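Usage

Read records sequentially. Each one opens with the input sequence:
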Amino acid sequence: MYKQSAIFLLTVLALGACSETFSNSQGASSRPPLPENIVELAAPNQDLATAYLRPEDNCYWYMHAGPVETTPLPLRTAGGNPICIKPAT
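and closes with the structure output:
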């Protein structure tokens, strides 16, 4: 009886941890849409739906979903340059 309860509890905890990881994509649904000029600059094969402006460096980043983990990467142009904006003065 105790063994079954322990297995059930561990399963619930493991699934709970996974669901938090997959559902927490840094507030992607609350982000404003990208400006049209940024969309035009961005190279293909980048997830523009998850792109956001990072205030620390004033560059756009997106969430790359790799085979093992999801990683933030700088949004780049077709030439490979990061897409950044000048800070407001």
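Summary fields computed downstream for this record:
- The first strand starts at residue 52 and ends at 54.
- The CA atoms of residues 37 and 57 lie 19 Å apart.
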